[in-house]
Amino acid sequence: MQSLLTSPTTPFLLPLALRNLHSQPLLRLHSNHIAHRKLKLIPQNEIHARTRLFNLYLQMHVNAGGMQEARQLFDEMPGRSLVSWTIVMSGYARHGPASAVLMMFWDMLCGSEGGLLRPDSFVFAVVLRACGMVESLSYGRVVHGLVLKQSCVVDSFLENALVSMYASCGALEDAAIVFSVIDKPDLVAWSSILSGYVKNGFEGEGLSIFCDMILRGIRPDAFAFSMVLGACANLECWDFGTQVHCYIVKIGFDSCLYLENSLMDFYAKCGDLEGMSQVYARMSEKNLVSWNTFINGYVHNFHYLEALRIFHILMAEVSKCDDFSLISILKAVTGLGYLDHGKEIHGYILRAGIETNRYLVSSLLDMYIGCMDHESLYPRDEVPLKLLNYLEGGKYDEFIITSLLKWCSLESNLENGKMLHALIIKLDLKSDSYVLSSLIDMYSKCGIWEAAKRVFTRVEQPDTAPWSALISGHSWNGCFTEALRLFRKMQFDCVEANEFTFTSVILACLALENLRKGRELHCKILRSGYESNVSVVNALINLYSELWPHTQALKLCTLIPDSEISWNFLIQACLGAEDYEIIHKILWRIQVSRGNLDPFSACDIFASCSSPVLLNVGTQAHAYMTKRGLISHPTISDSLIQMYSACGRIDEAVQSFNMMPQKDIFSWTSILSARVLHGHPSEALHLISQMRWNRTLADQSTFSCILNSCAHMGLVDEAFQLFFSMKEAYGIEPLEEHYSCIIEVLGRAGMFEEVLEFINGVPTFKLGPLIWRTLLSSSRIHGNMKVAKYAAEKVLELEPSDFSANRLLEQVLLTSGEWDDALKLKTKNKSIKASSSCIEIRNKIYEFRSDENPAKEVSAKLAEIEAKMEELGYVADKNHLLHNAEEEEYDGVGLHHTEMKALAFGLTLLPPGMPVRVVKNVRMCGDCHSACKFMSTFLERELVVKDPYSFHHFRDGKCSCRDAW
Question: Which of 434, 534, 660, 788 is deepest in the core (most CB within 10 A)?
């Protein structure tokens, strides 16, 4: 009986045990042994049987991935059929290299079997697939021509291969033409054209193709869905992506692990971390790709701490990770500056034996470079010896060289930079654009201009990266005009700019304060398609914030997600323009998007809340900064003290000061100023003793606070001792403000003769308006008309437009009977600006102006208060005539001024016992001051009024200013 292995009519069946071992090396050895033993049993004249058996063993080798053995067996075949060629070519297409398919196809057509073998549609499809893999469009066109020339039967398999080849080679027009002539394109054809558009950067067109595919009734598979989700992620098209997600759930693909990973990646790139977390939480199965996608999503959105937490969970639950996990987490560690964590990860890499992975080594270098203290004397010591040994072992590539050059740039380490330059020449990396751009950047940062230019001039046809490095280097070193000239030359050479080029040129325009050039550059950016690039938009926001009204910069914030905006430039511009409302809206956007916020921007936000009517916003900002972990920064603590002090909450200011772990001179000065501002001079002097005990050296601002405290306490001798010790003991030259403090000390004590004598000894160049305003203020307190007139005249000599001094001088002249002079001033000051007061209730600010009538409920409340005061026997204090100079005049007696209207409104709406806080834009008059003191005796709540000169806390018939304001 003839054996089944030699029967020409019976198909050879691979044993079941061998069919299950396709991926094992044992199969290759076993199959070689069987093949040579069995082939000897077949007579030479039975060519077809021998060829069929050869083909079976060829297929077995291909299935096992043994292309070397398959090719060796193929070369030994006495006669090769079309099936033999097809098996080996499909194996190369599957396992690589794909270029071998093209060479075999050419041999098949032109070799010994060339006249006998005629490729079928399957062979053409395999070859076209290989053309797409190696992106050989010209070869693919030749194959397409052969298909047409041989009138080959074009089935759906070949049509899909043509579409895929053209799409993979970037010839989308040809792919679309082939696709359009397909009678009934199936899922593979739709997926091929969709993949081509998405992978070539035409994501929008890809989404349109997907919609057409759905309308034609084609049910997508996991691959098509992944392509669409990738397009939505690249476009950050959250709305479309969520609809795709709903469709995936609807047709039952929501449990596909491959799609769940794609969904997480989509939500992460759209900034929807909550959506990503929900997908992750609902996954019934997770592989390492799932963990990596989850971690990378947080890293991509700069949530480095959360990424680190997830990585710890991964290591606790799965106990393993791969190079993708480690590269992502090293980025997080670099962003946080956690060098110790980075060293732990480095230790894991060494224990896992993957320290030879060049991508990991490059990431480790970036981590050490980003985390180390570049200002330390020996930063190299912070890089572990094993990593340096690895690098010094000669295992350098372009990625590691680039990282090391970045290190040299940050360190300004020219010697090591030159060594790396020599290594680049030795390794023949002179043609690598990014290595050369890093080399140019290194020489530029080290200040070696000629070397940077020499490297650049030796680059043949420099592309974007070297140009960007050269322009950036000039901007870095302050040669902004030259940077603009180089940018123009780059345009003349028809080299396209990238985001690094644009940001460097924008900074040059900013430094030169050249808004016109900046706007021209903005037009170029729009034409180049970088109008939504995060780095470019942030640079433009910086430019417009500095050189244009901040409202123009605010318009750019719609181009990129709120979480990507560098808000600090805009916040600074709004603070400079005193547009606090915009800052508070920005804070809300930062909270919603969890956007970028640094300690300095937080200080600016607190500064924008420095008013009693903005106390609620300030406390909310304080809570949010605490939640973000920024409150421990010393600069923020100083800003908190200043904010609460300006809002009239001295207790909270003191609490913020006491909670500081370390206090510097700015902290002490802030709390001292707060104590003095709120009428607590004794507490301020006690703080000075504590400051001395802590051996904190005083500066000019500290001495101003100390002298002001002495003025409030009437400590004249102590004030003079401190004033003279400034230069003698501390080496601090007194400024105009220190002289004015001494004038206030003497003036509050009523020693006006000594004041005038002291002024005569003040250097002439320090006799500014502040000196005379301080004397004018002291004369108000004591009602000294003569000194008030003299001081007001001196102020008007220096600043004729000073409204307060004009009004006060007019009041003095009228009181002393100098009617004609007073009439001249009255004519001069006939256009008195209306005064106003503001109060905040339930996060809304209400303004009361002197030229507007109050509402009925306010008038009714004022009448009720007046009646109560008359019933209790209130008599107005008329000893503050000079304090009434800045307010408009009324006929009759009553509570007519704006702060009284605001207080009445607050008493109407605020709960019982809650303090009423009012801000007034001119000095509080004596009548209202006296009335508020009396009102505080029966209203059973604190009344707080802040005018431009002082805080007034009214409690139990007393004011914190001690009637000296």
Answer: 788
Q: Measuring CA to CA, which residue among 155, 115, 116, 113 is closest to residue 128?
A: 155
Q: What is the pLDDT of residue 395?
A: 65
Question: Tens of pLDDT along 121-175?
Answer: 888 888 888 898 888 888 888 888 888 887 666 777 788 888 888 888 888 888 8
Sign of CA dihedral 84, 85, 86, 92: positive
**Could you tell me what percent of the chain has a pLDDT over 70?**
86
Give the C-alpha separation, 944 to 950, whole Å.
11
Give dist(CA 561, CA 557) in Å, integer. Answer: 8
Q: What is the distance between the alpha carbons of residues 359 and 353, in angstroms, rounded to a whole number? A: 14
| Paired tokens of 471 | 């322009």
For residue 107, give the 3-state DSSP assignment. helix
Is residue 2 classed as helix, strand or coil in its secondary structure?
A: coil
Q: What Å distances lie between residue 962 and 649, 653, 879, 930, CA to CA?
A: 18, 21, 14, 12
Task: List, in order, residues 6 or more apart from 565 with CB less than 8 Å away.
Answer: 537, 538, 541, 557, 595, 596
Report the predicted TM-score, pTM, of the whole model to 2 decimal places: 0.66
Return the ∠ at Cα 45 (arms to 43 and 51), rounded to 5°. 80
Element holding 952 (H helix, E strand): strand 951-955
pLDDT in tens, 796-824: 778 777 767 777 777 676 666 666 666 66
Structure token digits, residue 605: 């936000």
Question: For residues 915-947, b (16+ Cβ closer than 10 Å) or e, as one string?
Answer: bbbbbbbbbbbbbbbbbbbbbbeebebbbbbbb
In the sheet that holds 951-955, the strands lie side by side as: 844-849, 836-841, 916-920, 943-946, 951-955, 958-959
CA dihedral 653, 656, 660, 666 (to 10 degrees): -30
CA neighbor of 471 nearest in space, from 431, 498, 435, 432: 498
680-718 tens-digit pLDDT: 888 888 887 788 787 777 788 888 888 888 887 778 888
Helix H or strand E encompassing 105: helix 99-110
Give the model confidence (pLDDT) of 568-583 as tens digits: 889 999 998 889 989 9
What's the 3-state SS for 384-404?
CHHHHHHHHCCCCCHHHHHHH
Whole-number Å distance between alpha carbons of 926 and 633: 42
- Contact at 8 Å (CB) between 748 and 778? yes
| Structure tokens, 549 | 């009204």
Cα Rg, the chain, nearest whole Å? 41
